[in-house]
Write a structure and sequence with these properties.
Radius of gyration: 19 Å
Strand content: under 5%
Order of helices and strands: HHH
Number of strands: 0
Helix content: over 70%
Shape: elongated
Mean pLDDT: 93
Largest sheet: none
Distance between the termini: 49 Å
Structural class: mainly alpha
Length: 69
């Protein structure tokens, strides 16, 4: 169980989408957290990899070329 205080505007948006879709506010909070946590996990994993000395880095151009070949 978790209790969270939301700013009024965010609460209104959450209530509106829940009402329109006939889903619970908890459903949307859970969905949002799952997506955000996945992004944060990816971000911190990237930071960890980038902080290792001697790592190989690629430019966007190099990545595009590798993907196209």
């Amino acid at each position: 169980m978790l209790t969270v205080r939301l700013p009024k505007e965010l609460e209104r948006k959450l209530e509106k989408i829940a009402r329109i879709t006939k889903r619970s506010k908890s459903f949307f909070v859970k969905e949002a957290l799952e997506h955000q946590l996945e992004d944060l996990e990816d971000f911190y994993a990237s930071l960890e990899r980038m902080s290792k000395p001697g790592g190989k880095y690629y430019t966007t151009k190099e990545v595009k070329e590798k993907l196209e070949s």
